[in-house]
């Protein structure tokens, strides 16, 4: 299984060592080889993608004609957008979501729509984990993580409302980057929770995700080989540490010691009670907003919802507005407290998931180690490179300060480099 390194491929295109068409041929060959067993794509149009490689001036744009996958929760004007639900089968939006338009204007070629779980919730999809086909790829950005892990794409967009970028990246052994809240626009995304939904990216390495984020957003995020210099890195296990497997604890310890050997200043940190309270508030905010966002589907298309999602929405409708408002106030206090905490540390190092990808397809895994950081809006990065004894990936998560994405990516690059050594 050969991963595609987005930053290197773009540099090769811009230097004339390869072409967008040659890269697309490589992608098409990988799709022909792996898609039949991985099922990462909800829609493909490789003929249109090949035609797009001939656009004049493509190689001079930031993404240089690289193929990009778009999670099928984001609208596309030239490919169907079904949001993982039979309710929207064959749906053709009139316009691209702004994030998709940003990909195209940066010189990315939309190769296909990647599978999302139903409305980016918990009902498992048909996608399989390329690292071991008998295991879940996670969710809800199952197809994006799997396509990158299978070498079928160098870059893919995903979304995270609780843990839908970091967790599948950890399960599939690739980089997942959830930027600071609203760094990439969520307009044109099927809304689940407007205070939480975040567009993120998947790529092979931290530097590839940073490169793609810079190219798409126009921000100074392309870190290249830059490593954070002697960062203050706090190990955060949270009150949920008992739910993490021995493999997850071992990965966290290994990553910390490796980063320390490369100059990071490592110490343990217990989260203040304000932050632990916010973790408990996250589901209230998410579910109250989901009950409003999916009111029409529940009222008029209930028969086409999974029983899991319909029952969840029924329960969510019972959340009182006062309880929701209290949860939002709890989140605000936590954000203020986290700002104080980041005066003492440069980044946090914590679990990406409770352990390796579960075997079977009854669940997409738990977001218990992701939802707090999504609620607080900070950048989060799954750093890959560690495996359990059976060879399945175990990720570790770097969390940065709100709006300091470049610093978080540089710390992630340090941890990734340290692990590889």
TrEMBL record:
GO terms for molecular function: catalytic activity. Residues 38-408 form the Amidase domain. SUPFAM superfamilies: Amidase signature (AS) enzymes. It comes from the Bacteria. InterPro entries: Amidase, Amidase_dom, AS_sf. Belongs to the amidase family. This is Amidase. It comes from Xanthobacter dioxanivorans.
